[in-house]
Each structure stands twice: as structure tokens, then as C-alpha cells.
Amino acid sequence: MRVINVTYYTAAALNQIDEFEDISRWAANHHETLDGAGYPYGIHGNKLGFEERLMSCLDIYQALTEDRPYRKGMSDDKAMRILEKNAASGKIDKMIVSDIGKMFA
Q1: Burial class of residue 4 (count of CB atoms within 10 Å of its CB; 0-12, 13-18, 19+)
Q2: What is the CATH topology of the domain spanning 6-103?
Q3: Confidence band (pLDDT; 50, 70, 90) for 4?
């Protein structure tokens, strides 16, 4: 089975727009994790900027809370528990997760 790397194509499309280099990088790297187990490049946390870390956390939150064709969206509380578990395991930024939690408290 062939896997399509959507983050690669997102970056390729955004790179066509002048002065979108930063946004392109954030979009391309928002599936990376602090422990280096993410994709598409396996970048470790010390090489991920704040914007990439922020987009990663917000993308996870949105994916968990919005309805999908195959399931209903989760509650804010349940989504936050999943984010907090991922932060505790070193996959995503703890401070950003904390700030997201404050927004929905």
C-alpha cells in the first residue's frame, strides 16, 4: 500500500506563495513529535520551533473534538486527557497543552 504524505504536499503548495516559507515549514512539520517519532522527517523536539509545536497540539485537539465521518467528536475534557497523556510521554509540548487546557477550563 502506498502512503501519501499530505504534509509534504501541503508544504509544496505553500512554498509556491511568496513569503510563506515559515508557514510552509510549520505546516510540513506539525506531525513531528518531540521524541523524534513523528513524520515525515523524524525531527526531534530541540529542532522544532514554537509554531510547529503549537500547530501540532492544536491539530491534535481539533482532530479529537470535531466530528468525523467515522466517529463523533470527543468532549473537551476527554481531548485534554489525551493531550496531557501525550505531553507526559514527551511527544508534545507540556506548556502548550497546559495553555490549551486553560482556554477550555
Answers
A1: exposed
A2: Hypothetical protein af1432 (1.10.3210)
A3: low
The alpha carbon of 100 is separated from its chain's Cα centroid by a whole number of angstroms, namely: 13
Provide long-range contacts, Cβ within 8 A and 24+ apart, for 19-23.
22/51
Q: How far apart are CA 5 and CA 11, in angstroms?
A: 10
Domain residue limits, the chain: 6-103
Asked if pLDDT for residue 3 goes beyond 80, the answer is no
- Per-residue pLDDT at 61: 97
State phi, psi for 2 to the nearest 5 degrees.
Answer: -90, 130
Q: How many helices (H) and strands (E) does the chain have?
A: 5, 0
Does the pLDDT value for residue 1 go beyond 70?
no
**Do 15 and 9 meet the contact criterion of CB atoms below 8 Å apart?**
no
Reported confidence tier of residue 97, pLDDT bands at 50, 70, 90: very high
